[in-house]
Amino acid sequence: MRKITNGLLALGLLLTIGFTSVNAQDVTDVDIKNYAIIELAKNSITDGISPMVNSMIEKQEGMTGQRFQELQKTKGSGGEAWEKQFYDLVNKQIEKKKKAATDVVKLLAANAMGASQYKATKSAIASDADMKAKFEGYVAALQ
Q: If DSSP states are collapsed to H, E and C, what string results for the chain?
């Protein structure tokens, strides 16, 4: 519930901040903050994948975590019919969550800072220790 609340808070902050219009070469503190909000929204979705898979495995009679990992290594081949069916079902759920996370990133990035500025900010954070520290500070403050 808290992750959903954080996601909605992040969306609200993005709407409050509005559109940022800057040169794609310059990465501002606002860009870094927007990027942090977008990453938190994405993580609120993707962080639920592993617990979801574990829950599905627990509920499936005859399936264990070890067996599921074996199925993952072979992409479901070599398993019994029900195992292949279960493997496909779990992977559909994983892909659904990944797509939702990607859609959230695209939507928020486009509306908060623009795709080119999002990419520039992502690159700057990856290559500049000071910007990475600012990003991590914003993430910590928003969590």
A: CHHHHHHHHHHHHHHHHCCCCCCCCCCCHHHHHHHHHHHHHHHHHHCCHHHHHHHHHHHCCCCCHHHHHHHHHCCCCCCCHHHHHHHHHHHHHHHHHHHHHHHHHHHHHHHHCCHHHHHHHHHHHHHCHHHHHHHHHHHHHHC
